[in-house]
Write a structure and sequence with these properties.
This is Tfp pilus assembly protein, ATPase PilM. It holds the Pfam family PilM_2. The chain is an alpha+beta fold and 331 residues long. The protein has two domains: 264 residues, Nucleotidyltransferase, domain 5; 61 residues, 2-Layer Sandwich (Dna Ligase, domain 1), CATH 3.30.1490. It is 29% helix and 32% strand. The protein contains eight helices and 18 strands. The strands form five sheets. It has a six-stranded mixed beta sheet, sandwiched between helices. Strands 14-13-12-17-18 form a five-stranded mixed beta sheet, with helices on both faces. It has a three-stranded antiparallel beta sheet with strand order 8-10-9. Helix 4 crosses helix 8. It is globular and about 65 Å long. It starts with a strand and ends with a helix. About 2% of the residues have low confidence.
Length: 331
């Protein structure tokens, strides 16, 4: 379910670029969650907004500094397409379209019978049902080619080798399904809470059925970094606490609407979310988790709560969960 670029089996690194941060991680191997290296560089406001690069030259300079500092020059990179640009669609296609013909069929139908909110997409798909007499169902994942290529060029300019573009929700579910206790038939909601956005996704029987990016109203210029007692950097807010907490109430309401949509519109009241998992890089994530838990009627947990084993210390650092899931992707 990833948009691929370069072939090869060389060990890769994962890079996540958001409006406020560049985050890097490298797993020791794909059989466990131990990170060999990890780091992050916070970005000043105005360089990226809602995933769109506004100041390419400054971002390229910062990324080049990171590449040199982290010693990852010429490495293959897996990255995520910015969440605001991801489109997930469930499509019905003619049953006589063979699996090896689906990509060609989609190229022909995009812009005619299949409409997306942008032109010139890059896309991938997952077959849900095939060999049906009259029709088959697929999941289509798409993003604007312009955005994907701009990030690809950014990495290439920094002497990196982009190998695959993925989706943050898929990376998180890969982490969840690979290492955490689960019932494959359950319907779970994954919630990512970052500084200025939330991503809500639902997976049913291991298949993504819903993804939505929700902007969080906040002034990024009031967020800054400071040194924590352990020497690591932490993010602090210079304004009033209410300026951060009040907009989150609308986000919580949106989560409840999504749950009701899944239960009543998609499943006619016969099925509901069985578990909500909250993660993200928001510095107040613990309070946010508690607020969501108090509003919902289903269990609300963190990745740490789902662990089969308590040995993975770095899973406590929720900001790197997407990186870890991206690192678990097979080359």
């Amino acid at each position: 379910m990833a948009m691929r670029f370069l072939p090869g089996k060389k060990k890769h690194v994962s890079l996540i670029i958001k409006d406020h941060v560049i985050r890097y991680a490298e797993l020791k191997n794909q059989r466990d969650l131990d990170l060999a290296k990890w780091d992050e560089r916070f970005l000043p406001p105005g360089i990226i907004k809602d995933g769109k690069i506004l100041d390419y030259d400054t971002l390229a300079l910062i990324l080049e500094e990171c590449v040199n500092e982290w010693k990852i020059k010429n490495r293959q990179v897996y990255f995520t397409v910015p969440d605001p640009f991801i489109v997930l669609r469930k499509l019905t296609i003619p049953g006589d379209v063979q699996e090896d013909e689906i990509k060609g069929y989609l190229y022909m139908e995009l812009g005619t019978s299949i409409h997306l909110p942008f032109e010139e997409p890059v896309f991938d798909y997952h077959v849900l049902s095939s060999n049906q007499k009259d029709s088959s169902e697929i999941l289509l994942f798409a993003a604007p080619e312009e955005i994907v290529m701009e990030y690809t060029e950014l990495f290439e300019d920094a002497k990196l080798r982009p190998a695959a573009a993925d989706i943050s929700s898929l990376a998180l579910y890969r982490l969840y399904s690979s290492y955490f206790e689960e019932q494959q038939s359950e319907a779970i909601m994954l919630i990512q809470i970052d500084l200025n956005s939330a991503v809500c996704s639902i997976f049913e029987s291991e298949i993504p059925v819903f993804m939505r990016n929700i902007a969080i109203e906040t002034d990024l210029s009031k967020w800054g970094t400071a040194a924590a007692p352990n020497g690591e950097k932490k993010i602090e807010y210079s304004g009033k606490e209410e300026e951060v907490l009040h907009p989150l109430l609308d986000i919580y309401n949106d989560f409840e609407k999504v749950m009701n949509f899944f239960r009543y519109s998609l499943n006619q009241g016969q099925r509901q979310i069985s578990r909500i998992i909250v993660t993200g890089d928001h510095p107040w994530l613990e309070k946010i988790h508690w607020d969501i838990k108090n509003r919902m009627e289903v269990p609300v947990v963190s990745f740490r709560d789902c662990l089969n084993s308590g040995q993975y210390e770095l899973l406590k650092h929720s900001a790197f969960h997407v990186n870890i899931g991206l690192g678990l992707k097979e080359g």
